[in-house]
Amino acid sequence: xxxxxxxxxxxxxxxxxxxxxxxxxxxxxxxxLREDLSRRKMGYGRGGRMRIETDEVRFLTGVRRGxxxxxxxxxxxxxxxxxxxxxxxxxxxRSGEPERQxxxxxxxxxxxxxxxxxxxxxxxxxxxxxSARETAMRVALGGVARQYLRQLDIDVTSFxxxxxxxxxxxxxxxxKDFSELRSLVMASEVFCPEVEASLAMIEAIRTAKRExxxxxxVFEVRTTPLPVGLGTxxxxxxxxxxxxxxxxxxxxxxxxxxxxxxxxxxRKHGSxxxxxxLPAGPGQPPVRPTNxxxxxxxxMTNGQPLxxxxxxxxxxxxxxxxxxxxxxxxxxxxxxIERSDTCAVPAASVVGEAMVCLILAQAISEKFSGDSIGExxxxxxxxxxxxxxxxxxxxx
Length: 396
Ligand SMILES: Cc1cc2nc3c(=O)[nH]c(=O)nc-3n(C[C@H](O)[C@H](O)[C@H](O)COP(=O)(O)O)c2cc1C
Ligand SMILES: C=C(O[C@@H]1CC(C(=O)O)=C[C@@H](OP(=O)(O)O)[C@H]1O)C(=O)O
Fold this sequence. Notes:
binds flavin mononucleotide; Chorismate synthase, AroC fold
């Protein structure tokens, strides 16, 4: 079983993470991790913090000479910004009050509910962990999961479909080649593969920033075809659609998740939504010319690529702030302004990829298990042989 946890405050010394259950014998390519972490820092609309952080990861355990050894893998990622916060964010005791306290909650952020929940009058104690800084560690651990999936020839990618009211013209584009999609995405400052839409998105972010406002948007994560039968319908909490939705929704500011046609499908007739089966000849799995289901039926993968979308609300720190209330004095005051992003949908799309990698790695390890990569592959191959017996024409 693969499980993972993260820890760390946004302006504290470091983020740390642990992932366990990764089999032995898997080479870990740090360049691949670095690439994911650097993509997460990008995107037009990110704030000044991204110029400070280098997001260099260091493995502390579970890896020897570049190869996993089956023990828990721990990762550390320093917050370079800590050098500006050493007094305020010191771990050891200090006398007096910290300088940079937060007393006026930002509508939309975790400040108010977290302050009451943890009984903290300095809301910095809340925002430090609620902050999406934590997603850097998810991307580091997701990078480990991505390499596990690569061992099984599974690839995961993403792109931005909408920012504010600007949408791609062809949101259901067919993608044959992930590397082609990746180059289109990386050529765009907002990770949108359509040039015209990209330019309009950048303009929308620029305008929002000028007005002291912020924007959200929608991104999609896609995979190459997945093995049949990850997840199960037999118990509610083991359905893969539910686990993926939870993982996506757990990303800060994600407020909507769709699988396949999602909400659009809810407005159509069944005949326009479901994916017909066409015979492909004896001994062959039937062909599905469409993928409205997004690769999941009955809470299980059906052999098609996974298509999952997420909707991100606009960033809640506004340079032109909404009205709020000082929680010490009870007086009305504009909400706190902290250095902030204007739009972070491109960054969130990279976090979405990481979460999909982690959940798929978990589902694969549950179905196929394997203490070493060799054993995992052997289990998968034998499962494929069993599956082939069920293809139409092969049933005896
Ligand atoms: C990659 C990323 C970057 C973010 N950057 C900011 C930011 O700069 N300022 C901000 O107020 N919120 C930012 N957020 C969103 C907040 O972290 C989030 O709204 C907050 O934790 C409250 O959680 P909720 O929106 O899920 O309710 C970001 C989210 C993501 C995924
Ligand atoms: C640090 C990151 O994102 C941060 C997420 C965030 C928030 O409130 O979620 C607020 C901002 O923090 P700061 O005020 O320190 O600039 C973002 O920069 C990151 O993505 O690595």
